[in-house]
């Protein structure tokens, strides 16, 4: 496994220096000897290479690879440290840091530990290219992360880098074009159109996907990971266990309650119809939302591959296509429109902020407020209560 610029053999627990890194240093030394002089950058490059061995705890831990009692612990440490971030975050950081490493090689810089001038010049180059600020942050945080876990000096903590990032934010910052929230009126139209034939499994899935996303303030990854064993039907409501959530870092789990409303848009009623039609087994490990295929023999749609959830791309296609069918502009909406729509409806109907925050699993009020769009009557309410 490639780890902190080195190769960590998980079978033998041996920490090795990549051959290209050794070759680079050798070539640098040969060049310095043949020229009979060296630049400050060349000297710094060799010094930093040496520091990466002398100061890192990973070298010390490598000495325990053959220890009778501690060998296994020493080999597991890299995996444990990486679990400090989610798998998706690690993959993103790996990808961005690899690009930074290639840039360093091209420009004769050490990538780990990197110098403040090297990272500053790299970030400046990205700003000149006009990348988005989100991309700029990803590069910065990947460099920061790799230096943090290497336990070497971290250039990203330097004041110059902080100022460069602040300047980049001002230069690259663009107005945020938020997507519109789904409204109850849109849901009414959607159910009227797609719910008129309750034997059509594809249309039933569309209705349930939208109604659950709206009423549960659900992120798509939360929707996609719901299994039948996560649903608990009670009198008057259904309880959904959310096993993994973006803000549930330590996987303690969350539960949301969705009430039976008894009206046309009742999410519990539509959920029961969908489960029955899809042939899903309660208390099973089957995913609630799965692929649906058409059977020409029976002239019906059937849920297939129940052990795999519906992908984000496919769910997005289903959702935006349904809006287009209703003569709505799909460019104004995204899957998060269901989450923001539910939160906005709750806020505009005077549901207490504390309950909205808990139901949507938001950690901060700032995050919650970013999803809520006040309706016109509530906006007018402000100036009506100024005593004018």
TrEMBL record:
Per its record, how is this protein called by name? Tyr recombinase domain-containing protein
Say if the entry is tagged with keyword DNA-binding.
Answer: yes
Q: Which Pfam families match?
A: Phage_integrase
Domain Tyr recombinase stretches? 177-385
Q: Which Gene3D superfamilies match?
A: 1.10.150.130, Intergrase catalytic core (1.10.443.10)
Keyword entries, A-Z: DNA recombination, DNA-binding
Q: Which PANTHER family does this UniProt record tie to the protein? A: PHAGE_INTEGRASE DOMAIN-CONTAINING PROTEIN, TYR RECOMBINASE DOMAIN-CONTAINING PROTEIN
Task: Say if the entry is tagged with keyword Transferase.
Answer: no
Q: Please give the InterPro entries that the UniProt record associates with this protein.
A: DNA_brk_join_enz, Integrase-like_cat_sf, Integrase_catalytic, Integrase_recombinase_N, Phage_Integrase-like_Recomb
